[in-house]
Amino acid sequence: MELTLIAASLSTALILSNAASISLAASQLKRRTTIAPPGGKSQPVSIVVPSRGVEPFTHETLERAFSLDWPRYELIFCVAHADDPVVKLINRAIARFPKVPARLLIGDDRISANPKLNNCVKGWEAARHNWVVLADSNVLMPRDYIQHLMAAWRADTGLVCSTPIGSRPDGFWAEVECAFLNTLQARWQYAGEALGLGFAQGKSMLWNKPMLDASGGIRALAAEIAEDAAATKLVNGLGLRVNLVASPFEQPLGRRTLGEIWSRQARWARLRRVTFPLFFAPEILTGAVVPLALALVAAAGAGFSLWAAALAVLAAFYLPECALAWSKGWYLSPRMVAAIMVRDLILPAMWTRGWLGGAVDWRGNAMTIRTKAAELEETPSSA
After folding, report:
1. What are all long-range contacts of 343-348, with beta carbons under 8 Å and residues at least 24 apart?
2. A Pfam family this protein belongs to (predicted)?
3. Helix or strand or coil: residue 102?
């Protein structure tokens, strides 16, 4: 009976913490609305976009970047190698939108083992304005992209970010990636912000350039293997906060495979493990597997139906999660519950992988992330 009571109590506590995280995230998030451009004088903004390779939505994301509803902004595209196929697409987009100040910079500043950060250095140093956005090339920027970033800046802010919200999935595995990105990772990140634990996310990062330059500039982000982890620690060290936009931006997914999801999520898990180990350790408890197992132990000990216990736990976990996606206008389909269940089955293996060494794939490079965040080896990838 003692084991039954302990299992039931722990399962209940995890179910309640899951519900609390959804409530906290919902309190921070808003359904997308359009923000009008500033009526008076506005701050000019530089947008630095590190690019590599051509992806299914590259044409659209490029066009969106040139169509922002902000009075004064410049685009700085950064590519490491001149023979990258995305160079032609960027040059065509620059030619198509001559009214938008835009430049393409080619070169690779090896300041770290982080290829994305290395690619951004030249863009940061070339930026003409005091407000700089570092934006991944696969972010689908809405017309009011800059307005949403600026609206999240407060007097005690050191950095504004947006998590990626997966959209336009093509196939079941892409829906599994939506389940990872949206109602799990974004949800917990916004719940953390509600508790005063703001974490940076590298997809879209709004910086005040003089502030970061006074703390070592973009090169200071080489202190950690992940630039967003370094940004979080730098901003917190200054006594400032990382804020998230109220309506995060889309990342269109297209088709995904199980291997692609595993590769990306394994890399992120390993990076979280070496940069924030105390926060990574309890991630094993965020899915339904552990509370479900505990509930089944409790049900067996009390003589209750195992099927009824399982259905009760899954309903308590997944119905609020789907309600969060629906209320914020995120992708939701009849297959999403199945996708969320598959995600939760993957989570324990992903969490275990985060504690292990070995190589992970980082956009064509096999990266070996060691026990210290700054120790990373880069070798040619078979991919």
Report:
1. 343/176, 343/179, 343/180, 343/184, 343/287, 344/287, 344/288, 344/289, 345/289, 346/176, 346/261, 346/262, 346/265, 347/283, 347/284, 347/286, 347/287, 347/289, 348/284, 348/287, 348/289
2. Glyco_transf_21
3. strand
Residue 380, SS3 per DSSP: strand
Per residue in 359-383, pLDDT (tens digit) is 556 655 556 666 544 444 444 433 3
Q: What distance in Å separates the CA atoms of residue 82 and residue 63, rounded to the nearest whole number?
A: 21
Instruction: Indicate the pairing of strand 45-51 with strand 131-135.
Output: parallel
Amino acid at 209: K
104 lies in some domain:
no
Residue found by looking up tokens 């050191």 in the block = 158
Sorted by sequence, the CB contacts under 8 Å of residue 277 that are 6+ apart come out as: none
CA distance 218 to 231: 9
Residue 339 lies in a domain: yes
| Structural domains of the chain, count | 1
Burial of 304 (0-12, 13-18, 19+ CB in 10 A): middle
Q: What is the pTM of this model?
A: 0.90
User: Is 211 domain-assigned?
Assistant: no
The pLDDT, as a whole number, for residue 295 is 96
DSSP conformational letter for 219: G
As a whole number of Å, the end-to-end CA separation of the chain is 53
Length of the chain: 383
| Number of Cβ within a 10 Å radius of residue 348 | 14
- 277-331 per-position pLDDT tens digit: 999 999 999 999 999 999 999 999 999 999 999 999 999 999 999 999 999 999 9
Structural domain including 304 reads: 2-26+275-373
Residue ranges in the chain whose pLDDT is less than 50: 372-383
Cβ distance 358 to 274 under 8 Å? Answer: no
Is there a domain that residue 182 lies in? no
Phi then psi dihedrals of residue 199, to 5 deg: -115, 135
